[in-house]
Amino acid sequence: MLTKHRDLLDRALQAIGERGYWSAYPESPSPRVYGETAADEGKARFESYLGADFPLDQPGSQGVVATERSPYGIALDVRYPRADAGALVAAARAAQPAWRDAGPAVRAGVCLEILAKLSADSFTMANAVQFTTGQGFMMAFQAGAPHALDRALEAIAYAYSEMTRTPGTAHWEKPQGKHDPLVLTKTFHVVPRGVALVIGCNTFPTWNSYPGLFASLVTGNPVIVKPHPGAVLPLAITVRHAREVLAEAGFDPNLVTLAAEDPGDKVASALAVDPAVRIVDFTGGTAYGDWLEENARQAQVYTEKAGVNTVIIDSTDDLKGLARNLGFTLALYSGQMCTTTQNILIPAGGIDTPEGKVSFEEVAGAITASVAKLTGDAARAVDLTGAIVNDAVLDRLARAEKLGEVLLASQPLEHPVYPDAVVRTPLIVKLSAGDSDVYGEEWFGPIAFIVATADTAESIRIFRDVVSARGALTAGVYSTSEEVLDEVERAAQDVYTHLSVNLTGGVFVNQSAAFSDFHASGGNPAANSALTDGAYVANRFRVVQSRRHTAREEA
Amino acid sequence: MLTKHRDLLDRALQAIGERGYWSAYPESPSPRVYGETAADEGKARFESYLGADFPLDQPGSQGVVATERSPYGIALDVRYPRADAGALVAAARAAQPAWRDAGPAVRAGVCLEILAKLSADSFTMANAVQFTTGQGFMMAFQAGAPHALDRALEAIAYAYSEMTRTPGTAHWEKPQGKHDPLVLTKTFHVVPRGVALVIGCNTFPTWNSYPGLFASLVTGNPVIVKPHPGAVLPLAITVRHAREVLAEAGFDPNLVTLAAEDPGDKVASALAVDPAVRIVDFTGGTAYGDWLEENARQAQVYTEKAGVNTVIIDSTDDLKGLARNLGFTLALYSGQMCTTTQNILIPAGGIDTPEGKVSFEEVAGAITASVAKLTGDAARAVDLTGAIVNDAVLDRLARAEKLGEVLLASQPLEHPVYPDAVVRTPLIVKLSAGDSDVYGEEWFGPIAFIVATADTAESIRIFRDVVSARGALTAGVYSTSEEVLDEVERAAQDVYTHLSVNLTGGVFVNQSAAFSDFHASGGNPAANSALTDGAYVANRFRVVQSRRHTAREEA
């Protein structure tokens, strides 16, 4: 299978060395790209899963679970096999030796074939992601399928590079002066860590899970996929394709299994501390991520948790562009991205623009107006905002309205197609620099704070303090001063946060492009690793060598 | 400085990709290599340090400490500045920004210049290592200087490769159909983790410390070097050279400091949990290594601890070569290497050879005779065995004599030059397979067990069980059966232990060659990382990016 996908892998290896623009899987859901019938077929396949037992033949199932509730208010009722943690681990261990012995090239070929199958099923995935996470269709398509597949390929490329940087065998010949040289043949085995566990999140079940899933799998580890109870279907579809490709390639399909559970089953925690589980990838809340880091001590633990994403506004030569750009960021998926900006720091005395000083109120007003405009027409807005993923976000939104002066109230929107969809526009609250007990925490959802600071120096100090304590995945700055930009860029390095500078066009602080942008840095409390780099893959396997004397005639 | 050393770095980068034979620093202490006067000058420089204040001008010293006692019984009495942990951390943090901003190429050049200075001072180092660790001169020279420098260069090469696999800047241009493309310039900063701590060991103060020291330093982290109280001088000399080169290059010498202490000062533990300390490299006992892994949670912790190194003897076509080879392994530095074989597993019914079946007693007898022969002439033997590093080894040796049938008694040897040297030959004790409470633990020192097993299948089972539980850095097997060799090689993979096969010549199971052999695997309890691979360096820094729109004319 690697022969079939060799060019793709080579191109991906080139891309991670250049980190310019490149994408392997088309992000346009156009019929010209995916075929005239792809959209309808995908929707039909998605619908065929609803109200039925999900077709997944794996060991140790104890009845079924059906835990998903669509933010769009449609009935899902997909029944998944309820996982027996011990049976999944046992099956994974039994499947491992042949997968390990197959070696990096074979494993890479099989993993790339899985990606090809997933790509061909992108419209099914788009529907599955949309109706479990609440994303709008376009985001569900792009983030759920091609962008997630790009991140998967990126992880495979890093892992393949890492596994093959040491040769499979080496000839070692040490001169001994007048005597015969010492000659050894050395063999270097890539040995996987053990069973890997991937714990998915509610909002981006594929995008956030694929890097860990494929990094672990390609390095030889069987993977148990534990989806969020609210977003099972996208990962169930993923597991199904993976199992089919593995079986076709002659491997045990139990190399990839689904661990669906009732929320009370505590399957994730049981698996995370199982002595055979040696790798855990997690995306989700800080409390559980911290618990994993503290307790899954037998494993390599890779976490992406909460953070407080910040934008510093110092000055601008394009206030309209700034407002348009930030407004889009806040409205997109109702701010339910781990990369969405929460805190916007603006000097209380206003900012410099080519048109002179613009007051704090005017800047804040431009941003709120931008959000209001984007969300004003419900029928169009819902494609941008999507729906609210779960009740926890609604509860948080209700609490946030009382935190300060409301600059823009959150509104329910009526969805033109799904009348029971739970749609909310962003809330924007004004705070002062002294309200660090509020803006110093993550308020996940359609909640943003515009914070009046004494000056940009205080904004930078707040940025440093909050991100040091709570972490961040993204940061932005607007300034026409090179000095200020340099200072913020130094601060961003100090708190290990990727920085977007003066974004006023079609690139947004909350979006990252595979093969070019790193997602998280692994250096602040928001995440202990980056998607995807050398450190993310290098410890998922170990190299174990053997050496023996080489007979002279072989030398 | 990188220009000066560019060829060396390039050759090292080639070597880690090939892992054949290569060495950068000559291992022969010949005057033809190091100069006619080098040996005498090195001895004189070493002696100039004795009974004096070690010349090291660094902040926060609180008086002096003198903790070393030579295994050769000579007076050392070197006085080192007694460390104030807080002052060293503060000085390291103050030194860091300029070192970070210098970038990978400048840092690599400075680090390679430090290695050049250390190499030029190899004879001083050889004496310092010999008289603190008890090693014989030849080992002290080779392991203390050129081999340690090779490992340092190897770590620098891996780290340089990792830091530069992501470009410093990238041009990102995403097509937008008929519209102008989106164009961004991206900058990728290599940002070090923070302050690094290196905790040295008593037996190989330089060889085991250099990889961590230079991996951390070249990736931008200031390094505090905490030597073992019994072997301070080799690392004090190292720190002195590092500080001089750093200052010459215009950097703050406090990027590398020495944390000498009285054993009761608990400086290592204070430093290890300091919030600013983000990397810890440790070589030493399991208990303290485990403590570090449990408690230094704010840091990346790299440990090399104890293990139970095992050799399985199934059959051989060269019993003499086997005995000569294993005998040398046991006698070298009186077994005080973390890689020395402890357990030799032999079927009670004997083994097959071309001359027919050879009984257990004969095989064991050939090994004990080989050790006895190597250690029979005290005047020559002491160069091989060296001296006993500290009283803990003597105590252990005394206890081990009572563990079973003594096949070879440990003997004191009189050193022809140093009458007070504490020299002991290896003890070899016979055990049975049931004595796992004895051979299942590490007995560090000149202590080996020959264990009578039911058959090779039981030997392999014992190997798996003991190494799974306690870890190992090395393993060996002797067999004429490809089937047995394959089975042991699979077992070695399962317990993540590097395997040497049928060594009967001039390569020994306890020796590893930089740029070719990995030291430890990082996959069993003996060590959580390998010297040196991608995983060892990739998490000592993070990449933090910034991105901004590129003006069209620049694009």
Automatic annotation (TrEMBL), chains A, B:
It comes from the Bacteria. GO terms for biological process: L-proline catabolic process to L-glutamate. Keywords: NAD, Oxidoreductase. InterPro entries: Ald_DH/histidinol_DH, Ald_DH_C, Ald_DH_N, Aldehyde_DH_dom, PaaN_2, Proline_metab_enzyme. GO terms for cellular component: cytoplasmic side of plasma membrane. Residues 82-516 form the Aldehyde dehydrogenase domain. This is Oxidoreductase. The lineage of its organism: Bacteria, Bacillati, Actinomycetota, Actinomycetes, Micromonosporales. One of its GO terms (molecular function) is L-glutamate gamma-semialdehyde dehydrogenase activity. It comes from Actinorhabdospora filicis.
